[in-house]
Amino acid sequence: MNRLIPIFLAGACLAACTTQRQAAVEQPAPVPLPPAPPAGEPADLAGLAPAQLKNAFGEPAFVRKDSGVEMWRYDSPACKAFFFLYPAGTTFSVRHVETLPRGQQMAADAACLEVLRAHARVS
Fold first, then answer.
1. What average pLDDT does the structure give for the chain?
2. What is the Cβ-side half-sphere exposure of residue 80, based on CA atoms within 13 angstroms?
3. DSSP string covering the chain
4. Residues 59, 101: contact at Cβ < 8 Å?
């Protein structure tokens, strides 16, 4: 029995070394993050309540609720707009807006937002 203990310990050490080498080799290279969007929010959209947002843009194409924050997405054939709503008292309000493609002066492109507003008026 005492002869088996050193053999068992040697096997355990070899297995640990092999596992550490494999883990180091199998890790993928880090992917660089894309550049941050330009700062700033459209003055007429920051602070909108959900009812005001629906009045301006209609029903969102997609809503995601995660950790007390809501993201509303609006789609057009040319672009998409993402509105991030955060708690404000007993309701939510728009705190950030981004579009794809992004705007030049801020993360939200004014032309995209106008297309989405026009689409809401027609619908």
1. 84
2. 8
3. -TTHHHHHHHHHHHHHHHHHHHHHHHPPPPPPPPPPPPS---TTTTT--HHHHHHHH-S-SEEEEETTEEEEEEE-SS-EEEEEEEEETTEEEEEEEEEESPPSSSSS-HHHHHHHHHHHHH-
4. no
For β-strands 62-66 and 91-100, DSSP reports them as: unpaired
d(CA 123, CA 74): 13
Does 7 score more than 90 pLDDT?
A: no
Polymer length of the chain? 123
Residue at token pair 């194409």: 61
pLDDT digits (tens, 9 = 90+) for 91-107: 999 999 999 998 888 88
97, β-bridge pairs: 83
2: pLDDT strictly greater than 80: no
In angstroms, the CA 77 to CA 116 distance is 10
